[in-house]
Amino acid sequence: MAPVSLNGPRVAVIGGGLSGIAFANRLLSHRRDLSPGLRVTLFDTGARALGGRCSSKSLKLTSQGTYARWDHALSYVAASEPRFLQIVDDWVNAGLAEYEDPTRVVALDVDKQLVVPGDASRKVAVATGEGWHELCERWVDPDVRVVRPAWVARMSRTAGERWLLGGSDVPGDETTFDYVVISHNGKCAARLIKSSEGAAGVAVEKSVQCAFSARPREQLAKQRRLILSSIWSVGVAFPAGAVNAPFDSAHVSGGDGVLAYAKRNKQDVDGVEVWSLLSTAEYGKANKVPQERVPRAKGAEVTNALLDSFALALRASGGSLDESAEILSSKYQLWGAALPLTVTRESHLLDLSTRVGVCGDWMGTGDARSPSAQSAVLSGEALADAVAANLASDDSKGARYVKWRTATASATALGDILLV
Asked: Which residue spans traverse the membrane (predicted)?
């Protein structure tokens, strides 16, 4: 490998979710030990904000002329590892998040009419203010150059053995880098690595290969790649009091097989409560349509199915839904690359011979067996530490292949799990 740029190493991060931001922040924290000229550029496709799976949207309340917050993907974070606990504490102290009662995050078995409260000893937090995208925008280090919206579609080797990036809205002064970090998954990441025509390294290329399917666990155990599932996410605004629930979040099993998760969103609008309803992977597979052009009839069908399943789950928990109450607003989204059903045994991947790394919520940390916000952050930080060590030693070894395993059955598409 050629020496890094004379003015300081240049690092590109492709994907501005939790893992990408965590990587960028952590790497910049090593500047004193590395080079004051270290530059980190974070590319993200988000037109509105950073965040990836960590994002919130708005529901327009037509009768009030205001907007209510809808957490359409990540709904809460659960912290158990000391380092992530420290980060969540920092978010809370900065007013970006607040802690919730962990016992109100429950497991609900509809068939058995069984509600299992969450572990009272763990820390559960939700974003404040406008939601998760605001947290991400304010958490990123101000010295990180954020480029969005930008679609990085190509990466190739220069004659000087650096990386040349190309794509939509990639600035001309932000194209050549010493290191490239991939912090997103799915077909887009696989296509990007493939565009390098083998220059990124076989181990890296294999680590981002993926397939989409809801498969039985015995089949997932045989997979040696990332398996992603598609789910539906629906946000519904009710008049306050329309939902009588003995929980704030419920990981649902059994019943009609439609609803996997329900969450009462933190809300600043008086007289309104918004619930996020996420489908099972099986329902998502059975009702798959082009996510960029969801037919209105299909969206209405899915919304009604999830509302019916929500009412069923509430009755099973001893609660109820006032089905005569007016729905103030609703919105649906087909989330194509939602839930990783397999995870790696490694926290990150770094090929020192090509200076390409991979991190994300599907990469394990410690005994982690599920995709989670905690795994995303710790994966990004572990990769940053590895890049910092490489910059200090200039090692050039190749990467080992990652090993895959099945995610826990309690993993859900919101990016966190219930541990009971």
From this structure: none
